[in-house]
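Deliverable D5.2: sample structural annotation.
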Amino acid sequence: QVQLVESGGGLVQAGGSLRLSCAASGRTFNWDTMGWFRQAPGKERELVGAISWSLAITYGTDSVKGRFTISRDNAKNTVYLQMNNLKPEDTGVYYCASGRGSDYNTWGQGTQVTVSS
């Protein structure tokens, strides 16, 4: 069964840090683009950033540049999202997804991140 499982979410004060992990299983994801998305209450899901098989990184929103870092460990079939200097507006459900290019076809169940002011 192909699946992605996120972990590492939680409640943190503004200025704090969290590291999200996304463990992939069921097949190799080494050649996939892995993306992190988030959805805040009442808002549409947005791309936080993505990392390609060649380790090229793109960030979907300027608000996370300089604070969030995406990385992957293909040996562990895991992708990470390091989030520093968190702000209340970073609150939401964070999802990881995999696919080819920007065509994401496998999604995790999401992990809640709540940043208190």
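Annotation notes: The CA atoms of residues 18 and 83 lie 5 Å apart. The chain is about 0% helix and 55% strand.
The annotation will be released with the project's public dataset once the embargo ends.
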